[in-house]
# Entry
Amino acid sequence: MTSKNEIKQELRQQWIETPSWAYGNTGTRFKVYRNPAAARDPYEKIEDAALVHRLTGVAPSVALHIPWDRVDDYATLSKHAAELGMRIGAINPNIFQEDEYRLGSVCHPDPKVRRKATDHLLECVDIAVAVGSPTVSLWFADGTNYPGQDDIRARQDRLAEALRETYAAMPDGVGMLLEYKLFEPGFYTMDVPDWGTSLSHCLALGPKANVLVDTGHHAPGTNIEFIVACLLRLGRLGGFHFNSRFYADDDLLVGAADPYQLFRILSEIVAVGAHRPGSAVAFMLDQCHNIEDKVPAEIRSVMNVQEATAKALLVDREALKAAQQEGDVMGANGVLVDAFSTDVRPLLAELREEMGIDPDPIGAYARSGHAERVRAERAGSTGVGWGG
Ligand code: PSV
Ligand code: MN
# Structure
């Protein structure tokens, strides 16, 4: 069994990236409830992400979404991040919010629209280079609503072409993630609906393109840890967008809906050491806090991933293997359930004290006065992104 100190050593190195869009105003299609504490621009989003990192110790990078986070000078933005002890992580293009994209972006039937969308992907490669980010993370809202609306195979060809051009523009040190989503906004087809479609495009592109698993993008009941295990086996799991879903792509706090599922996913990850920083599997959150306060919501989410990882590290792998070999069904399952049922909060509190941070990050946030300060400073903001 792994010793307590070894487990703490693993957890100390964990790297969970938070998304800039978690800190700004967002909402559903029905309403954006403006939060007076919401960050107003990319600089403030990075400041909020830095606070999450200061209080948790394991969230040292922040993903950007372009154009929500477009700035004139990316060198100044990454310097701002560095001064706060942060790095800029994945660059996420946005090719779903302009009128031209009604019928799709890179899969659109009109080559002029495809050109515009591909140019934006290329712009994001340039931004990744400018800010020193290792990742361009692609999600396409492309799809159709009605049978016959467009040619399914032709759309795949158009997608492959745009991906090829983008991949060819990526210099060494920049990788591509291709995210899939079962439905929405396309209700009949999505052009990248599942891991099989994503994987087939990644395999055609080359080793720098890998699959991104957003935990909210599956049909109810999908066994996500099975997908994770298969992608790990093939060496093509590029990373996660962690969040929770009750119904569809709810973007709620990771670990809120089904902590056991989160543990099962992390258990597959830990089994092959893919939780370690050099492993090429990026741990990212993709959440929107529409009614809850944003910074504490991100803190809680980081802690939830950390707790699930700690439990996965507690799995007695030798006992598990022995039970599996012997065909001891209940015994093998019991090893997992024992680890999941362990309260790891005292261990994490101890770890935080050793790292020189408050053992209670949520309490520390409440005591920091940040909420009151930014509420006064930022009140009246129109925000960016959905709330813009
Ligand atoms: C799409 O639902 C998605 O998961 C993609 O990752 C987008 O970039 C992100 O949400 C925007 O919130
Ligand atoms: Mn996502």
